[in-house]
Design brief:
homodimer; Jelly Rolls; Arc Repressor Mutant, subunit A; 8 helices; DNA-binding
DNA sequence: CGCCACTTTGAATTAGCTCAAATTCCGTGG
DNA sequence: CCACGGAATTTGAGCTAATTCAAAGTGGCG
């Protein structure tokens, strides 16, 4: 895929993380598809993602809502599958996983969540949580009662827009995760996992060259539909190919010297034959 | 959310959409799925997505919004990846698939959508669609401008609740699909696919004993992360085990004589060891 | 009737899993 | 400070399930 350099790339984000290079799936699409002539509503709905997005969430929350703060440590449970739902959680700091489990005991991490993400949406339709949310690190969440949020959003519609965008963003992330699980071989799946992680960090203005994976190989494996051995092997292979590096002292810290290289690695797996152009 | 289900709302809608008949079959489902008290999760899998749920969407829409109707035929595109987003689509009748495609050309159906489901959420955060939605059959969608919907939902908060519940329901479905992809072997994955399909039909008061899969084996395979051959083999095996039956004339019509048997089949694969009871 | 796309089935290949052993990390207590 | 033990990780060696490749069968539709 030729990287159609994009007309107006963000010059520089607030923090030093400029990975803008990574093909945010969506942007390249614009170029990839038949140029769609009816571009009338380009400005109708402003693109609402990126660094300013999560910040907006937090800011709006502070302005228009009363909410609680809750500090958490690693392995704390935010909510548990089966509990009654009445409040949502907005992540202020920290890292969280949500795990889904089937009645027969099958279990799988269903997503990773960062600063600015919401937790608890899964309880909305039924009034009862369908997953559990667990902290992977120390952090803080802001708690908002769902009803209060709905009421506040009548006064301040932007609040609702932000929340809808957040939900929709989760949908998109899930879809991408499914795509990876369904179409990528093990190595590339692990690479994609790291890339998405870096992507999520970059979106929030955090550094992406140094990732601390607060998960065991088993957790990663579950998340990706692989065994822990496969994850370990994949990471070793990625390290051997120099697309990642293990930080000395502790193999849980992973460096990504070059995001593009990681992205290319995934490409190279999907295009096994030397496809010259297109 | 307390569903104020009044058995007979709108007597006859303008369009002949005669759905009514709150169906008790769904209750059977509620009993069917969480029936497995294996371990702790008796309540772990809550009654997912209420029945009258989709009905409410359609009713509220009619009351509080102006919307367009659009009839579609098989293979029509509702929206295409990359197009600008400004309207949402509520499915009145028919069956739709949403396909996600990565910049490198990898493609995967990301979900199936039925009566009462919304299409188009994926455009919210970015203002541009990240997937394409395609009709698998003739049907009708109601179109609503996103901005109009937000405004209307200020006047009628229930509208927002319904929409949020719909989004959240999609999140749950995606999570379940991921779980299946990540934890089930091929045969069970196909079985689960059929079971979820039946489940979706039951939720809407449609018959579940006779499913017409309007998808090719290749589509199903893509959706489940399998090859078309694997899907074909899996279906053959399921038929051999009598948990499904092919309708004579056309292997695209599948009968499920006994949903419980299908469910048991999945169980039996996940508990390979002769686990006597529990 | 005949073409074409979809499907089924078989045989060979392989990616990823299971089983098993060795190694490293980290907290705990001497 | 160092020794110890448990947990996480790495790596290897078969094995199995799913893929790939290939060929034959079926149905729909002009």
């Amino acid at each position: 895929m030729t990287v159609t350099s994009d007309p107006q790339t963000q010059p520089g984000t607030a923090s030093g993380a400029r990975i803008e290079r990574y093909d945010t799936r969506l942007r390249d699409f614009g170029a990839l598809l038949p140029a769609h002539p009816s571009g009338r509503s380009a400005a109708a709905v402003p693109p609402r993602r990126g660094v300013s997005f999560w910040r907006e969430s937090l800011t709006l929350m502070e302005q228009y809502l009363t909410f609680g703060r809750r500090k958490v440590r690693a392995d704390d449970t935010i909510y548990r599958c089966g509990e009654a739902f009445d409040t949502l959680f907005l992540i202020s700091t920290g890292l969280f996983k949500v795990v889904n489990l089937a009645p027969d005991g099958r279990e799988q991490p269903a997503g990773l969540y960062f600063k600015g993400d919401w937790l608890g949406f899964d309880g909305i339709p039924t009034g009862r949580h369908g997953c559990s949310a667990i902290a992977l690190d120390t952090g803080e969440v802001w708690t908002v009662r769902y009803d209060a949020l709905l009421q506040a959003s009548v006064r301040e519609p932007m609040l609702m827009r932000v929340m809808l965008a957040a939900m929709s963003g989760q949908l998109a992330r899930n879809r991408d995760a499914m795509l990876a699980m369904g179409t990528l071989p093990a190595d590339a799946r692990v690479a994609d996992f790291l890339l998405q992680w870096a992507h999520a960090l970059a979106e929030r203005g955090l550094r992406t060259d140094q990732i601390n994976v607060h998960m065991t190989r088993a957790d990663i494996g579950n998340y990706l539909g692989l065994t822990l051995e496969s994850v370990s092997r994949a990471l070793s292979r990625l390290a051997r190919c120099k697309v990642i590096e293990f930080n000395e002292k502790g193999r849980r810290d992973i460096s990504i010297p070059n995001l593009q290289a990681l992205s290319d690695f995934i490409q190279s797996v999907t295009d096994p034959a030397g496809r010259v152009l297109q």
